[in-house]
Structure formats: structure tokens, C-alpha cells
Write a structure and sequence with these properties.
The chain is built from 4 helices and no strands. It is mainly alpha-helical. It has a domain at about 65-104. Helix 1 (about 1-25) packs across helix 3 (about 65-90) and helix 2 packs across helix 3 (about 65-90).
């Protein structure tokens, strides 16, 4: 099961990067990041009650988990923006690789 989930994760992350390349060139880096993060937020909001993930928000663990979450969110936003800007440029190695795969 772990191998199957690992393959599924690799396919979804790779597919998201592939789609982000086209989205950043068409609508811009910030707008593409906003839409991708928004879609992820909506899907996470839908699935968290089903998976039982909302219980940890109010368990009285204090401010430290919230601070770590805000720090991780800020780092994620910065790194996603950097990735999408790189995907938008022609110098990105993934752009050349995907162009070669599409042409074959």
C-alpha cells in the first residue's frame, strides 16, 4: 500500500507542476499560485471532517502549533511562488523536458 500511495503522490505532484507551467504562462505567476492554493484549500476543507482532522485545532495545545503552522505556510507560499516563477521562464529544465516529451 505504501508503494501505491508513493506512486500516486509522485503522479499528482508531477501533474500539478506540469499544469502549473502552462497556468503561469497563461495567467501569470501570482494568479496561478492563488488558484492552485485555493483549490487545495477547498479540497482540504472538504476532506478534513471526513478524515477527522479538525479535532487538533481546539485541543488546547497552545500557540506553538499555530506558530509552526504559520511559519510553514509562509515558507510554502514563498517556495511555491519561486517554483512558479521558474516554471514560467524558458530556462527551467522541466520546461525543456516536458516540451521534449510532448513532441514525441
Amino acid at each position: 500500500m505504501g508503494i501505491l500511495l508513493g506512486l500516486l503522490t509522485a503522479l499528482t505532484w508531477g501533474g500539478a507542476d506540469f499544469l502549473a507551467r502552462f497556468a503561469t504562462r497563461r495567467i501569470g505567476t501570482l494568479r496561478a499560485m492563488f488558484y492552485m492554493q485555493g483549490i487545495g484549500f477547498v479540497l482540504l476543507t472538504i476532506f478534513l471532517p471526513w478524515l477527522g482532522g479538525w479535532g487538533h485545532l481546539t485541543d488546547g495545545s497552545g500557540w506553538r502549533p499555530w506558530a509552526w503552522g504559520l511559519l510553514a505556510g509562509g515558507i510554502n507560499a514563498f517556495s511555491t511562488l519561486a517554483l512558479y516563477r521558474r516554471l514560467k521562464s524558458e530556462k527551467c529544465p522541466w520546461s525543456r523536458l516536458s516540451r521534449q516529451v510532448i513532441q514525441r
